[in-house]
Amino acid sequence: MDTIFLMNSLWVMVGAVLVILMIGGFILLEAGSTRMKNAGHIAGKTIFTFGLASLVFWAVGFGFIFGDNANFFVGLSHFFYSGYEIEGINLSSSVFFLFQLAFAGIAITIALGGFAERAKLSVYLVFTILFSALVYPVVAHWIWGGGWLAEHGKQDFAGSTVVHLTGAMAALAATLLLKPRIGKYNKDGSANNIYGHNQVYTSLGVLILWIGWFGFNAGSTVSVDGGFFGFVALNTNLAAGAGAVAALLISWVVMGKSDVTTLLNGALAGLVAITASCAFVDTWAAVVIGFVAGMLVFYSARFFEKRKIDDPIYALSVHGAAGVWGTISTGFFATPELATVGLPGLFYGGGLTQLGVQLMGVAVSGAYAFAVSFAILFVAKKAMKGLRVTEEEEIMGLDMSEHGSYGYPEVFMAKENKLTS
């Protein structure tokens, strides 16, 4: 067993751990962005759905992505992976499997953000199984598993489309079918702010996600040879910083205040956007990509709110809009030296070819993820007598209605004691 094999295996294992750690970031981000009465529910269902998605990925997801005997749609082998070695990778196959599993877990976590504060726990269970089997693996196969978009040279190094846009389009399907939370919109169509209960949680969640993203992007090199992972990590950090600064500035100029939520979303949008291009662009382009993403997320959130699309954790803007921008950005900025997949971008003499491939990949992948997710949820709505908890349960909070206990027992039990005394 050579040294490079062992070092690659160790590096990708570190990357897998960092990506799984991002689940903790999402717990803090989602719980902090929503109300106290739902915090325990959000934390618990996130752990539960990651566990369930892991089992589905082991059973069929990995095989649909990377299996042999592939057709236009999916791969058709490597089901119920048992640790055997896979040809074509210079690292432990079990480590590679775990790394890919972590990405599938992030995709479903993003998707479930669109269900926040109003969906039944049973809906999370059903959707996690079907999304992890029928949605995410198909798009991943098209782009990463040697599918038809890969044959066209689609550039998506670590998943702006495969993970983030796919998750966001599923979240969009959920928000449309679930409808807005009680109290979000007035009869005249104006929106009310439903504030998250803890900005410290959301800030810490973003920091954990930022750190985890080094596993997400730099880990996707799946190699230590040449130290290229360091360059990918540098681009990742620059884009996140530019996104945070841009979002702060645009909110300050437009609103007269530097909104904390917008700032945090800007950092995440920069990370999402650079995920596709981190290995294909120069550092200056990473700054531009992140800066544009930071501004885009501000206006995207306003766009969805005006259309009465209630998105509590901004999944559509952070992962959807920024995912689209990040994917098409390689069509502009990919350099001849770094474009190991596809062609150089428009600004480097590559013409419109790669930009066209990127646009096609976004359109087809986004449409597939939305259509199948919508169909799954539409059927589930009929079969399960609705996707949403009752009005009484929603007002009570999902901590108590779905789990029978409070995430903050001292606070809520003290209130109940006051009411009964």
From TrEMBL:
Keywords: Ammonia transport, Membrane, Transmembrane, Transmembrane helix, Transport. GO terms for biological process: ammonium homeostasis. Gene3D superfamilies: Ammonium transporter AmtB like domains. GO terms for molecular function: ammonium channel activity. The chain crosses the membrane at residues 6-29, 50-74, 94-116, 123-145, 157-178, 199-216, 228-253, 260-277, 283-301, 313-335, 355-380. Residues 10-408 form the Ammonium transporter AmtB-like domain. It is found in: Cell membrane; Membrane. It holds the Pfam family Ammonium_transp. The keyword Ion transport does not apply. PROSITE patterns: AMMONIUM_TRANSP. Its main location: membrane. It is a multi-pass membrane protein. InterPro entries: Ammonium/urea_transptr (IPR029020), Ammonium_transpt (IPR001905), Ammonium_transpt_CS (IPR018047), NH4_transpt_AmtB-like_dom (IPR024041), RhesusRHD (IPR002229). One of its GO terms (cellular component) is plasma membrane. Belongs to the ammonia transporter channel (TC 1.A.11.2) family. PANTHER family: AMMONIUM TRANSPORTER, AMMONIUM TRANSPORTER SLL0108-RELATED. This is Ammonium transporter. It comes from Bacillus canaveralius.
